Fold this protein.
Amino acid sequence: MRIRPASVDVSGVAQRLGDTVIELSCVRWFANAVTAAVGGVSGVQEFANTIRASVVAAFVVLVSLAPLAAAADEAQKSIWQDLTLGVGIAAINYPHYPGSAQTATFVSPLPYLEYDGDWLSVDRDGIQAHLFEDDRITLDLSVSGSLPVNNDDDQLREGMPDLELILEVGPELEIRLSEFGAHSFELHVPFRAALEIDPSRGIEPVGWVFDPRLNYLWAQSGWEFEIDLGLYAADQTYNQLLYGIRPQDALDDRPIYRANGGLVGYRLSSTLRYDVNDWTFLAYARAMDLSSSDNSMSPLFVDDQYLAYGVGAIWRFKRAK
């Protein structure tokens, strides 16, 4: 097993700082772009405020690094050369939450970025920090999440607090089980902290998510086809956010409910991707069987089937060298 050592020279420090700035900027940019798209005027204002704050933070970082400018110059040039930039558009239809009978459609342009550094990668699969790897095992730091829901648009949750944008961040162990030709099989075992991004309250932790799955990938001649089969579980705090009903939110037909930690459902998802020149086209679908959910007795749980699907396109206007 090969452990990635930490660099202690000035150029290495500058490289890692640059990686971190890229990671944080991508997360905040994407999170607030989604919030703006869904949240209307207030979301746009929050997005603008965050962009201004990010610019100020970047300026402070650059000023603090001024004494290291000479040594960091080559590192920053390397970061720019390793960047791929683009724009994309996505359209997604998804249930408000697992167990909801109502769906929402999200259509929006989004920024796109690819970066492959010594320890940090940003690509179509998300943000990953490579902590260690050998021929069969990789430990990554990955990011996932779920889109926000305005509870005024959800009949069962009317009058309750909105479900805000949720980011899931944590380590993911990837074990390569088999690989032959264009085919590969892996076991992915992520364990992520869930963070709710609220425009008024900021970022708040809302529990933990466990999402182990078997992964099959076929890749050949610009085509990729991927299937994931696994389960989705969460702790009591996270499930309370989705299925719990506080005393102040209770009604005659919506009694108080305290959620249980445990299984949310079993999942099957697939992605089809095609790369041609500077374009990527994608199609995605996820189905979940929620009939064994540990919170099926919640008044907010009314549908034991979940289906989300979407399409997208990405155009790259600047490629890494």
